[in-house]
From TrEMBL:
SUPFAM superfamilies: Ribonuclease H-like. Residues 3-86 form the RNase H type-1 domain. It holds the Pfam family RVT_3. Transmembrane segments: none annotated. This is RNase H type-1 domain-containing protein. It comes from the Eukaryota. InterPro entries: RNase_H-like (IPR053151), RNase_H-like_dom_plant (IPR044730), RNaseH-like_sf (IPR012337), RNaseH_domain (IPR002156), RNaseH_sf (IPR036397). It comes from Hibiscus sabdariffa (roselle).
């Protein structure tokens, strides 16, 4: 088990890793956890870092453009839906290749 902050940081790391692995060159990542973003920002100017934040910083320092922007949970309904759907599963990692019907519905209602 891990804390919700650790889960958010792992989600940021996995998202960055996935984007980097498919050679995305410009990315806007919109987490809904201010505390995670603040922790990453503070770590840029510190030598004391958690392991996962260190991995995030290494990815951010690659040859690409990444912007991390806070989005309130209410504005991030698809990510919230995916997180709730994953809760309780015994799987450690979920990778969605295509959107489920539930996600398609949320995207359609959001105008996306």
């Amino acid at each position: 088990m891990c804390s919700s902050l650790e889960a958010e940081l792992w989600g940021i790391f996995e998202g960055l890793l996935c984007a980097w692995s498919i050679r995305i060159t410009s990315l806007i990542l919109e987490p809904d956890c201010k505390e995670a973003l603040q922790m990453i920002d503070r770590a840029r100017h510190s030598t004391r870092r958690s392991s996962i934040v260190e991995h995030i910083l290494r990815l951010l320092n690659q040859d690409w453009v990444v912007r991390l922007e806070f989005v309130p949970r209410e504005g991030n309904v698809v990510a919230d839906y995916m997180a709730k759907r994953a809760c309780g599963d015994d799987l450690i990692y979920h990778r969605f290749v295509s959107p489920s019907d539930g996600i398609r519905s949320l995207l359609h209602s959001d105008g996306g």
